Amino acid sequence: MSQKIDSDYQRFRKIVRGKVKSDLSKYVSRGELIGRKGKDLVSIPLPQIDIPQFRFGQKGGGGVGQGDGNVGQALTPEQGEGDGKGSAGDSPGGHILEVEMSLTELAEILGEELALPRIEPKGKKNIVTTKDKYTGVRQTGPESLRHFKRTFKKAMRRQIASGQYEIEKPKIIPIREDKQYRSWKEVQKPESVAGIIYMMDVSGSMTDEQKEIVRIEAFWIDTWLKHHYQGLKTVYIVHDAEAHEVDEHTFYHVRESGGTKISSAYELCSQIVETRFPADQWNVYAFHFSDGDNWGDDNTKCLGILREKLLPRLNLFGYGQVESPYGSGEFHEHVAAYANKFANVIASRIPDRDHILGSIKEFLGTGR
C-alpha cells in the first residue's frame, strides 16, 4: 500500500510539474509565485488540475451505493459551475488547488523551459563546510539508517542455510544479526559562492509597473543562481542623480523623482565589488534596470567605468531596459555596442511583462 501511495504521489508531482512548465510564462508575467514564497518553498495555484471525484457507474456494476443518478454524474458539485449570479447559499464552492514546490524544482523547470546551460563557477571563496558522506555499511546504527536491501538478503541467506526457508510459503524475518546499517564519514567541501548586485533607476520616469517588472525578473534570476551556488549575497542599489545602497524592501518600494545619472550607480557598484567581492574568490553578477534616459554626457563616463572597473571583475553584467513612454531610451544602444565586444555583457529590452521570460533567457543563456 505504501509503495502504491508513493507511486501515485510521484505521478501527481509529474502532472503538477508539467502544468507549471506549460504555464510558466503566465506565472512569470503575473508574478503569482513571489507573494507565495516561503523560506524554501513556493505555493503555486493550479486551477487547471481537477480534484478527483467519485462518479456514478453503470447499474448492476456492483457496490453498496444507493440512490438515483446518471452515468458519469459527479457525486459532489462540479468545480466552477457558478456564474457569479444568484443569492447567497449554504453549499460549498469550488476551490483552486495549491501545491508547494521547492525553489530547486522551480529552477529546474526554468532551465528546461528556456534551455539554459549550467553555470560553471569561476572562483572559490575561502569557506570549507563539513558534510556527511555515506561510504559503506556496518552492523550497528540507528533504525533510520538501516539498509533494507542488504538486511533482507542477509536474512534470506541465513534462512536458506539453516533450512528455515520454505519455497511454498516464503517468509523472510530478519533478526538482530541480519541487520545492516549505512555508515558515513565527514568530508570537507569548499563552497562556491556568488554576489549579485541589482541596480535600478528610480527617477521620475520609472513607474510602479516598471519596478514590478524588475521585481519579478530579479526573483527568477535569484532562483536560477541559487540553484548553482551554496551561498548568494545580494546587494541593492537605487539611483536617480545619486546612488544609494538600500535593503530589499526599499529597493522595490522607494518613490523618487528628479534627473538620472547612471554613472553614480556604476561607481557605487564598483566600490562594493572591490571591497566585498574579490574577483579571485567570488562569482559576481551585476544587473542594471533603467528606462535608458540618461543625463547629458554621462553615457561616456558610464561606459568608462563599465569597461575599466566592472567588466574585468564580473561573471556577467546585464542591462535590462524597462521601456518607458517618457524617455529616449538611448542608453540601450551604448550597452548593446559593448555586448558585441565583451562576452560578459548582455543588453535586453523589456517592453512589458510578457517579455520577462525572454529577457531572463538572454541574461542567463550564456552559462557564465
* Overall number of domains: 3
Give the second-level CATH assignment, the architecture of the largest domain. 3-Layer(aba) Sandwich
Calculate the terminal CA-CA distance, rounded to whole Å.
46 Å
Structural class given helices, strands, pairing?
alpha/beta
Shape summary = elongated
SS element count, helices:
10
The average pLDDT value, as a whole number, equals: 76
CATH class of the largest domain: Alpha Beta
Write the CATH fold name of the largest domain.
Rossmann fold
Fold and architecture overview:
With 368 residues, this protein is α/β, with parallel strands linked by helices. It folds into three domains: 1-49 and 97-115, no CATH class; 129-188, no CATH class; 193-364, Rossmann fold (3-Layer(aba) Sandwich). The chain contains ten helices and ten strands. The chain has helices at residues 2-22, 24-30, 103-114, 148-162, 208-226, 248-253, 262-276, 298-310, 331-339, 356-364, and strands spanning 41-46, 97-102, 128-138, 181-190, 193-201, 231-239, 243-246, 283-290, 316-322, 345-350. The strands form three sheets. Strands 7-6-5-8-9-10 form a six-stranded mixed β-sheet, with helices on both faces.
